Amino acid sequence: xxxxxxxxxxxxxxxxxxxxxxxxxxxxxxxxxxxxxxxxxxxxxxxxxxxxxxxxxxxxxxxxxxxxxxxxxxxxxxxxxxxxxxxxxxxxxxxxxxxxxxxxxxxxxxxxxxxxxxxxxxxxxxxxxxxxxxxxxxxxxxxxxxxxxxxxxxxxxxxxxxxxxxxxxxxxxxxxxxxxxxxxxxxxxxxxxxxxxxxxxxxxxxxxxxxxxxxxxxxxxxxxxxxxxxxxxxxxxxxxxxxxxxxxxxxxxxxxxxxxxxxxxxxxxxxxxxxxxxxxxxxxxxxxxxxxxxxxxxxxxxxxxxxxxxxxxxxxxxxxxxxxxxxxxxxxxxxxxxxxxxxxxxxxxxxxxxxxxxxxxxxxxxxxxxxxxxxxxxxxxxxxxxxxxxxxxxxxxxxxxxxxxxxxxxxxxxxxxxxxxxxxxxxxxxxxxxxxxxxxxxxxxxxxxxxxxxxxxxxxxxxxxxxxxxxxxxxxxxxxxxxxxxxxxxxxxxxxxxxxxxxxxxxxxxxxxxxxxxxxxxxxxxxxxxxxxxxxxxxxxxxxxxxxxxxxxxxxxxxxxxxxxxxxxx
Length: 570
Known about the structure:
The chain contains 21 helices and six strands. It is mainly α. It has three domains: about 1-95, no CATH class; about 100-220 and about 235-440, no CATH class; about 455-570. A six-stranded mixed β-sheet has the order 1-3-2-4-6-5, with helices on both faces. α20 (about 475-490) links the parallel β2 (about 470-475) and β3 (about 505). α15 crosses α17 (about 375-390) and α17 (about 375-390) packs antiparallel against α18. Mean pLDDT is about 90; it is low at about 405-415.
């Protein structure tokens, strides 16, 4: 837990927030994005006003604005509402990003003992449980989720507890003992709370049902190839858990159906007529699986460092994957560990199958968001812990069948020394690379933030010669969050003053059926000259049509999350 806290609190507020984090902060404060005026010039102070804590914000406001403007259930936002009230605002008057993210880190730290419990319940091995916990602590994927002011770590904590209840229930069923009522009550409560934190917890519960059916079929396989399988008898306690958990999901069905028509979810749809789009989910799955274990600084600006990181990661995977497969085979061969391997492996495979069916069957590419793999990630970590425990207990890693003969051991193609020689050294090496990977995420050299407004602010300061006016075509509060990121960077700068803060135009174009471009030009015609106009993330069909505004050729750099053009209006 201390190790998890160390790598998650490290540089917690150094990375800029992105639009989803702004949503968390604004709604948690009991504010609305709709208070930000559209189709007119507004100051940075007005744009950032939803980030200002106010005593009159209530939990009722949190639920009302969240359910009307966003696509998520309210439990985490309510918890964040009370959490933010415990801490003061920044000197600039806006909410602290460190405070907003720290709640996610707290739930991530609490997940460590939950992962330990899952490992212990599945394997009855302190070594496997400890290694699972430390793998979660240093997993770059887990650090990435924890350093976001979002609800994924709380959802993952509840999923882990639900998996614990599943494993405990299976142990009672194997012992032909009734499942205790207290366990059923805890299981139902965890499932219901999880769905109220994130709708994707429903996919995790569906994965549990599929994995349990698969496990049951595996356990009750017929003794002879031609004999029919024995009838399956579902314990009444398990049926009660399933029905009440289903009811907890159906409660949210009206809200969930409304999210399907929201423009906030348009990014997840893809064109199924494009052959390349059918291949993307495969590579997105592979990338997500790799970074659950290792992610060195691939996104460093210093290309030699990124190149070395890529080579080390490839070499690690070539070495690690065969060891992992061999360890999992060992777990399957052992009668005492086979059932847990099948059950947890079924949870992982079921989660992957569910996401694949949604992607290819419904045309909603849930693999585009690597964060959505949280629905089965705790089972992955538990399996890794057991595999590493098997590896730890191996004295010599060198396979005698493939070892070089003594008389050729000095040839160039047969290395004289092997590293690591023992399983303990191999496990420690894996954990050390995991720790380096966690630090890479913490310093934003891996899993780079989706938006880099601090880089855009630097570009603006470099080329600006007059007051700054930033314009974007507005569709949803996503664009409001993008502009908030820019305003926040200028507001937190040491030389911030009313004269250096930019002004903004969120051109929605809704009034009088004007297009965003027409609205922009109408507003620009009324702005006193001189000013420097920055078009940021402008995707409208038309452009600036002002006789005294000329486009400037500047040396552009690629900035994550932002495209931009400069016009000087004199």
